[in-house]
Design brief:
By secondary structure, this protein is an alpha+beta fold. 62% of the residues lie in helices and 8% in strands. The protein is built from eleven helices and four strands, in the order H-H-H-H-E-H-E-H-H-H-H-H-E-E-H. A hairpin with a 2-residue loop joins strand 3 and strand 4. The radius of gyration is 26 Å and the shape is elongated.
């Protein structure tokens, strides 16, 4: 379809919409333009600036309406989540950063190679700084198939955790702060492990163990259960957040949880 023909169809839609109370007129107008589309082309050629302004305004209005619909949908999902919060699995074996009894629980489903997850990392860091001692952060894996270093990075994280949970989170921070170096593949992950003074022989033996692969699979299944398909995804005190939203978005959720009496800080 040529650009001019596309514009003519948009014009037709605008004309019909503006005369929606007169069905007979609409029918005659549509028939006339269908039989002689040059009517529209000549009108466009005669008033190109006005036509383009009309199309641009219509596009802006459509975008604004879509954003409003998205906002309303998110609000509905939030309200539903407040009544029926999600419950990620958190066991004694779960790696937790921060106080284990902290009032704010942030579970992140992430991909080490995803650029948006690097933003998610920064957001989580900002929230832990904003609420010192009030946040327990849990990192769960959702490696995407089109990120070739995502799965192996998840395996390294879990294998390191078997030796030291603290060093696993140091690995986590290092990867996200230098995400571009993942292009060097496993050599980069091994170098981080060496810098952390880990037992490399044990690390390599653990990478593909059933325990680690099963844990990653459980994380992926949980994210899918919660409707989290892209990364990053979060669950904050049972409320889902899908996407790399800034810290302010999470602060609004925390404020709403407090207002509803579901959180005490």
């Amino acid at each position: 379809m040529t650009l001019l023909r596309l514009l003519s169809l948009i014009t037709l839609a605008i004309l019909i919409a503006s005369c929606g109370t007169d069905k007979q007129f609409n029918a005659r107008l549509e028939k006339a333009i269908a039989e002689n589309p040059d009517i529209v082309f000549k009108a466009i050629e005669k008033n190109p600036t006005k036509f383009m302004m009309t199309v641009q305004n219509a596009a802006r209005n459509a975008q604004s309406n879509m954003q409003e619909q998205r906002r309303l949908k998110e609000e509905q999902e939030f309200e539903a989540a407040f009544s029926h919060p999600l419950e990620p699995v958190i066991s004694k074996q779960t790696l937790i950063r921060g106080p284990k009894d902290a009032p704010i629980t942030i579970v992140e489903y992430s991909d080490f190679q995803c650029p948006f997850c690097a933003r998610g990392f920064e957001t989580a860091q900002a929230l832990m700084k904003k609420y010192p001692g009030k946040v327990r952060f849990i990192y769960k894996h959702l490696p995407l198939s089109f990120h070739p270093q995502a799965m192996i990075s998840s395996q390294y994280f879990e294998a390191i955790a078997l030796q030291s949970p603290q060093k696993a989170f140091k690995f986590h921070d290092q990867v996200f702060k230098n995400q571009g170096k993942l292009k060097n593949g496993e050599a980069y992950l091994t170098q981080i492990s060496k810098d952390l003074k880990l037992d490399l022989k044990k690390l390599k033996a653990d990478l593909n163990s059933d325990a680690i692969m099963s844990k990653i699979d459980q994380h992926i299944a949980e994210a899918k259960k919660f409707g989290i398909q892209g990364t990053p995804g979060f669950v904050i005190n049972g409320i889902p957040v899908k996407g790399a939203y800034p810290a302010e978005h999470f602060e609004k959720i925390i404020a709403k949880l407090k207002a509803k009496g579901k959180l005490k800080l």
